Amino acid sequence: MSVTLHTTLGDIKIEVLCELVPIASYNFLALCASGYYNGCIFHRNIPKFMIQTGDPTGTGKGGESIYKDKFQDEFRDEIKHIRGTVSMANSGPNTNQSQFFICYKDLPRLDKQYTAFGKVIHGFEVLDAMEKVPTGPKNRPVTPIVLRSITIHANPIADEE
Questions:
Q1: Which of 69, 114, 116, 153 is the most buried (most CB within 10 A)?
Q2: Measuring CA to CA, how many Å separate 156 from each of 16, 58, 120?
Q3: How far, CA to CA in Å, does 60 sit from each of 36, 43, 44, 112?
Q4: How far apart are CA 14 and CA 146, in angstroms?
Q5: What is the mean pLDDT of the chain?
Q6: Measured distance CA(143)–CA(95) in Å, rounded
Q7: pLDDT digits over 24-41, tens only?
Q8: Beta carbons of 97 and 60 less than 8 angstroms apart
Q9: Are 133 and 141 in contact (CB under 8 A)?
Q10: pLDDT score, position 92
Q11: HEC string of 82-104?
């Protein structure tokens, strides 16, 4: 299962780990399919750490899951926070909603703190370009990076319905 994030800096293809983290994957794919993420900015960019999006308000304080509430963490020993890992952003245990981030480097301290549900499989050059975008206050990119749209290449959720 994969999706492509179409951003203003290029495309990033992500493998979504549906079998390992079904709750987070279902949430992410359903939000992708609904167009929820279209037009979201990457509101937080910290070089040598990560870049974050998924908040339609663009503030970093918004966003809602398909469950209409925060949902539980899903930690798996076999999924590590390495360069290219895609993970749910949260504000503490079991507070996942719509925001997610992509790791710029290996970040083992995030394992069992954030629900990782995907990994970049193509577009690392775009990830590199994102990391180089200058930022201002609150790590916000000075030149907005926009998630224009998402292509779902195979959606097992749609196949079930």
A1: 116
A2: 11, 29, 19
A3: 15, 6, 8, 22
A4: 17
A5: 95
A6: 29
A7: 999 999 999 999 999 999
A8: no
A9: yes
A10: 96
A11: CCCEEEECCCCCCCECCCEEEEC
Q: How far apart are CA 108 and CA 113, in angstroms?
A: 10
Beta strand pairing call for 44-46 and 2-7: unpaired
Tokens, residue 3: 């999706």
What are 140's two structure tokens?
């916000």
100 contact partners, CB below 8 Å, separation of at least 6:
28, 52, 53, 54, 86, 87, 88, 89, 117
Residue 25's alpha-carbon distances to 49, 85, 97, 129, in angstroms, are 22, 13, 12, 26
Which residues make Cβ contacts (< 8 Å) with residue 29, sequence separation at least 6?
1, 3, 16, 18, 152, 155, 157
Report the phi/psi class of residue 48: left, alpha or beta, with left for phi > 0 and alpha for psi in -120 to 50: left
CA atoms of 148 and 158, how far apart (whole Å): 22
What is Dmax (Cα atoms) for the chain?
Answer: 44
pTM of the model: 0.94
Amino acid present at 120: V
| pLDDT, tens digit (0-9, with 9 covering 90-100), for 50-67 | 999 999 999 999 999 999
